[in-house]
Amino acid sequence: MIVHSPLCRCADLANELATRLGITSNADSRLKKIGFGHWENRTGDDIRREDVAAFRNFYHDPVNHQPDGAEPSRSFYLRVSQAWDEVSARNDVERILLIAHSGVIRAIVINILRAPLLAMYRMQTDSANMTAVKFSDGRPPTIPF
Predict the structure, then answer these.
(1) What CA–CA distance (Å, rounded) separates 21 from 135?
(2) Which end of the chain has fewer surrounding CB within 10 Å, N or C?
(3) What is the tens place of the pLDDT at every residue in 75-131?
(4) Beta-carbon neighbour count of residue 145 at 10 Å?
(5) From residue 80, how far is each of 8, 16, 36, 60, 73 by CA, in Å?
């Protein structure tokens, strides 16, 4: 089965793949990208030109220096983790493809690693990237490299 963000970038791909493969595709609103408030839909260059200090502060401590109106990192992490915990606990399907945004993937990785929230902003995931998670009987999930 496929579980995905309801936003069109992910939903379109998920629905196309599900149709092609003849499997189920389910949108989960908890897998939406993090909201960046005042910075939403703006480039880094635009933000840096407007307020270089705010831009620098965010990149050095994004948990405590988010843009005005942004979704708090902790809230984002908790909603993504709730969705992940439910998806990863399923035992009625052999494989699950989760199609989501890079921030969602990073939140899931720190959940698996039990890493601090700041770690979510210290890794990079490219667009259209794949991250595998391995499940073994009696062991917590791992990320094979």
Answers:
(1) 23
(2) C
(3) 999 999 999 999 998 878 888 999 999 999 999 999 999 999 999 999 988 877 889
(4) 5
(5) 18, 23, 16, 23, 11
Of 22, 24, 26, which Cα lies nearest the Cα of 6? Answer: 26
Q: Looking at residue 35, what is its pLDDT?
A: 94
* DSSP string for residues in 74-127: HHHHHHHHHHHHHHHT--SSS--EEE--HHHHHHHHHHHHT--GGGGGS----T
Which residues belong to CATH 3.40.50.1240 in the chain? Answer: 1-34+73-145
Q: Please give the span between the terminal C-alpha atoms of the chain, in angstroms, as a whole number.
A: 24
Question: Can you tell me which residue has the tokens 């629905």?
Answer: 15
**CATH superfamily assigned to domain 1-34+73-145:** Phosphoglycerate mutase-like (3.40.50.1240)
